[in-house]
User: Fold this.
Amino acid sequence: MKKFRLTSFGESHGKAIGGIIEGCPSNLKIDFEFIKNELNRRKPNQSSITTSRKEDDKLEFLSGIFKGKTLGTPIAFIVWNKDQKEKDYEDLKNVFRPSHADFTYQQKYGIRDHRGGGRASARETIARVVAGAIAKLILRKLNIKINAYVNSVGEIELLKNYKDLDFNKIEENIIRCPDEKLSLKMIEKIKEVKKKGDTIGGTIFCVIQNVPAGFGEPVFEKLQANLAKALMSINAVKGFEYGSGFAGTKMIGSEHNDIFYMKDGKIRTKTNFSGGIQGGISNGEDIYFKLAFKPIPSLMKPQYSVNEKFEKVIINPKGRHDTCVLPRVVVIVEAMSAIVLADFYLCK
Amino acid sequence: MKKFRLTSFGESHGKAIGGIIEGCPSNLKIDFEFIKNELNRRKPNQSSITTSRKEDDKLEFLSGIFKGKTLGTPIAFIVWNKDQKEKDYEDLKNVFRPSHADFTYQQKYGIRDHRGGGRASARETIARVVAGAIAKLILRKLNIKINAYVNSVGEIELLKNYKDLDFNKIEENIIRCPDEKLSLKMIEKIKEVKKKGDTIGGTIFCVIQNVPAGFGEPVFEKLQANLAKALMSINAVKGFEYGSGFAGTKMIGSEHNDIFYMKDGKIRTKTNFSGGIQGGISNGEDIYFKLAFKPIPSLMKPQYSVNEKFEKVIINPKGRHDTCVLPRVVVIVEAMSAIVLADFYLCK
Amino acid sequence: MKKFRLTSFGESHGKAIGGIIEGCPSNLKIDFEFIKNELNRRKPNQSSITTSRKEDDKLEFLSGIFKGKTLGTPIAFIVWNKDQKEKDYEDLKNVFRPSHADFTYQQKYGIRDHRGGGRASARETIARVVAGAIAKLILRKLNIKINAYVNSVGEIELLKNYKDLDFNKIEENIIRCPDEKLSLKMIEKIKEVKKKGDTIGGTIFCVIQNVPAGFGEPVFEKLQANLAKALMSINAVKGFEYGSGFAGTKMIGSEHNDIFYMKDGKIRTKTNFSGGIQGGISNGEDIYFKLAFKPIPSLMKPQYSVNEKFEKVIINPKGRHDTCVLPRVVVIVEAMSAIVLADFYLCK
Amino acid sequence: MKKFRLTSFGESHGKAIGGIIEGCPSNLKIDFEFIKNELNRRKPNQSSITTSRKEDDKLEFLSGIFKGKTLGTPIAFIVWNKDQKEKDYEDLKNVFRPSHADFTYQQKYGIRDHRGGGRASARETIARVVAGAIAKLILRKLNIKINAYVNSVGEIELLKNYKDLDFNKIEENIIRCPDEKLSLKMIEKIKEVKKKGDTIGGTIFCVIQNVPAGFGEPVFEKLQANLAKALMSINAVKGFEYGSGFAGTKMIGSEHNDIFYMKDGKIRTKTNFSGGIQGGISNGEDIYFKLAFKPIPSLMKPQYSVNEKFEKVIINPKGRHDTCVLPRVVVIVEAMSAIVLADFYLCK
Assistant:
């Protein structure tokens, strides 16, 4: 993130969440409906399997856009936090919730906004979705397409190759898995876990198509390294693999090598275990990767923990949380991918 | 990599490989023997299962060190490439080797140094090992320990938890796996694959101990995001997972949450599925991660490919290559980890 | 500007001006009154010699501050532009005003917000003053003092050494010159120029005291280089000199060398032609510099120019503008200096 | 300096001086003769008015160039320091020379290489000249011309407008002043000062022609701000002014405004007090600036000072130094200007 650059701000229950996007080219027509739709894909309370918490998330642009087009100057945007219920969080004030960032923030800063996770809250991803939507608008002229979908929920896993899926079906169900039958099983699983007051993890698969050869840099700024950083920075992500990934470690070279051949006057590879990237640079084939998401730590069950006075405490469930982060995270994965690609495109 | 910063240079068969390290604190005593030993852990021809290619890799420091101590100014270093056999590579000049960077570099730059992969060669990792060794010297005063080892070769996988292993045994065998029995199987496997002129992948496990709470930044500069970028930038890496990783996606929250408790007057977690990082910031527990390495693409078998004139060609095996990159890569994984940690330490 | 970093946004007549400050230490108590006072030193219509344009400039913080203290997370702030009179600027829409940024923005971006200069307007300096005020709060604990004042208006120049001035008098007159007699002459001069519908330039002198030895970096990141960049980025600045400056070029070395001697147990210099910086690093003596400001280009007279259709046009005076930027710029000079010093302090 | 980036290294009497240039476009033909000639313009002992110290300064490229053309990968280069006379500097080991960086380096780092100024030595500018020469090669295709010359030595000042000078005459005399008569006076002055064992300052004027409109960025990354930073980072520079500079502060707006008009189908300005930059962005007119250089502090006379033990000492003259840095600095000023412009060009 060097040319196209997002600087974001905001605590979960502070006044607002927002950001500044620098490096966006001038004269780009802003498709406000599209951006709003991207935010809707992320927003809470969108279906029976997401949190019932209501957040309006009304987006306001403050600068950088003039009569619907970008000026080339910084694009600032803001989403007000309307629902600042201070009292709701009073009893979490001095407590470190398990597997949250309460403890580490306190250690690092000696102070924290305890309300809803403060800066560590996934509410911060609003800024990513807005910047990602603008990045997608930039990439439109190259016809680059980014499609992410839910690949597994717990043990329920989509085993089909992405090439055998219809990406148009992703948005047709509330879990955002393009396989209809499996999507029902995933939804059922989430509801089952929800009843127990528990949460569950899963994986997201993402496919990026029509990236021309030449995106990425040698050595430290490899395309996959920048994708990994961007995606591993999303809350709850525990792993990233691209191309053949961990399964590729069990292959031998003669199976794994992607043989070049000519097709329609272009150099292509017969297989694509490389995941569209060789030597850190895109080769024109599909870029694809998989992400691991842990079960989110906010349970609807009592849990033991420790408070700031080093006392053992019981944390009782409070608020309304997602049982499974996956359906809402699909658009965030696409957004971070778009930001990385837009940056490499603009740096070329 | 913001304060402690490595800028590297060099093509595989150019005059030299080297780099400049900026941001190293002054008055650090340089342990030249240690650095040399780290380079020896990386060097070719170190055992019967690594390439028999001989490279002397004599390291020379050019600046930033005065009477054995750092000055606080840029530390430049160089390793000359003694063995520049131009002719050896003549018949690869116009050919794109499968799953190498030949094609993508040519697409990106319109020119490339075809000799031994040029800038895309893993010979570049010499610079990483030198900077990593200096980073380790910086981290010594915090008693931070970084131990990587070979966790699997193809299907042969070490299933023990890292806590049940003796890291002192890592360097006792040529594959660098701390389990003696398994190391023999791995070595056998590599020799078997080598005989067939093929190559094989595997995984590296890395454990970082004694990192104080507070390393890392919120949101985009999370510790795991920076580790992922640094490690995914190593040649042949296809995946990164930390803590519970991909297996964690199959867990439910009440299993996965790391419960805080008091131990010896300190706040600790009972389990460590978080992998020592919460909200992007270290929590004082062990940091651990696993990396997937693909089988390297240089085979000792003929392969089909395409040349710059878009003609189908057969590439005949040439040179001496590793069958399995894993034993030589252990020190590189440690080096990149050390660079990331030293940077966060110095930025604190 | 690496650790303490301001990212700003906003067009002069867009919705708002604001910014995000990253890298501010946590647990810093925010003195809101002080910040408001700094903004008042910058605001228009503060006296009979500044523009009569009324701008309320009410500052709102959006993040990073919790119960009056900084969280260590990004501090976002905003000032709404209340007075968006689109029509006032209609006839400047296609015209390039002389010595403004209209032409260059149009050349660079192919689009521009013509209302009041858009992004090029000095209204952007609100963000600098806010960040500078916070930087000053950081520097308070080192007792670092930054005092700027008006040194000349046109030919009327303060010839006294800064050591013979009482900085407490700077804010006692509307021109912000600590010499009472001269301040009256300056004010008279500005009123005289204003009557003619013209504008006038001048110089600002700035003294930074109590900076400990050791701020700054060798070679490219010298303290004076970073000060020069920060200060030359202010609208209308045409020159920067520190220490002996241009006058020093007429000296010989034996006059110019600052001889070291011992005073009160510390190493000091007898003279200070170095301006408190040697080899790019502060030496503990006063840092001082002078800045040249051109006469601002918005005249209350008709001027010839060219429009976007390449036609010759006459631009008639419009709006209310400063005759002399100097009194309002004093606080901006201090702000940019504080930002640079806070960054070096936090990077140490 | 973001895309085209020089990282340099080296102490004056360490093993070598050198650097790594990143971001140079691929397929650029390297004119080695030109680079060598640029280094010759900087080298010591080039004439009767420069130091008689002999330094061979043989340049060696180590990477990034293949068969005479750039690869797009980092270009490393090195100049060995042949003349490492440790003993010569023994008596300066614990002494702080007046107006040198000895004291500030010691304060900052607690250690320093005392030999010839170590990292603070102007020998470091070799790296700038090499990178600047490559930047000039990049700018050749835009026909951008950069000419610097000596404008004054002490009180002897060239008062002609740069438009009335013949830049071809700059290299015709040893002081590098394009006015023949004045050059003789300058040379005479330097010889006179030299006889007294003293040194003298002066100014450099630099003109950059044929820069297209659109180089530079708004607000913090203005073209003049980046030029100021780059040029103020050169040893001994005390001031920078561009366009009307300090003299412009005495003008009124109606004199200073550069009126637009049409000439040969292009928008031009009648005067150029703006110095080719408006709103931080080039407008297509000539960019010009002036730099103040102090008299260098190495005298051929005894001077009082203080040593590391806080004792008063007398420093006796040693070594061979320039009396006036100006003739050798002309190429360095051009180099830093070229680096800034090449970066803005490549970032566009």
Observations:
- Chain B has a mean pLDDT of 95.
